[in-house]
Inverse folding.
């Protein structure tokens, strides 16, 4: 019997689609209709980094998203009441991104949901397999970055 050839990009895309569908079923996100998946990830990023000033460029770099895309996301998140932009004392040109109370509450609920999902995703996977998985993903991302620098 001939084994089916699998493509990394297709498998990552299929898995991503499954994760998105699963997130959309989440009670947390259903209660906040206007929070998209990217809003949730950015809220999480800002919540983890509350001890320092975070700017648009930090989000661009961390999520590998283009400036124009991040700009649009931030404007919508501000409009939806998830973040505010505040000036910083040391540079009048910069505006740091700050979570609102609404976003902080959403983040707490999302973290509970994330932990439940992680438990399910890790079922029947050993610590060694997880370490290998993350190592391979990092290499794939590195290959993509290297390739895009060449082109």
């Amino acid at each position: 019997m001939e084994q089916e050839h699998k493509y990394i990009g297709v498998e990552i895309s299929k898995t991503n689609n499954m994760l998105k569908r699963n997130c959309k079923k989440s009670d947390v996100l259903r209660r906040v209709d206007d929070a998209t998946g990217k809003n949730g990830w950015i809220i999480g990023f800002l919540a983890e980094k509350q001890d320092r000033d975070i700017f648009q460029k930090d989000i661009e770099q961390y999520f590998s998203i283009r400036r124009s895309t991040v700009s649009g996301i931030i404007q919508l998140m501000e409009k939806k009441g998830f973040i505010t932009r505040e000036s910083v004392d040391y540079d009048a040109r910069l505006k740091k991104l700050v979570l609102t109370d609404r976003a902080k509450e959403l983040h707490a609920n999302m973290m509970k949901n994330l932990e439940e999902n992680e438990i399910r995703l890790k079922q029947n996977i050993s610590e060694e397999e997880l370490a290998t998985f993350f190592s391979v993903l990092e290499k794939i991302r590195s290959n993509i970055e290297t390739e895009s620098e060449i082109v």
Observations:
- The radius of gyration is 18 Å.
- The chain has a mean pLDDT of 87.
- Residues 54 and 138 are 24 Å apart (CA to CA).
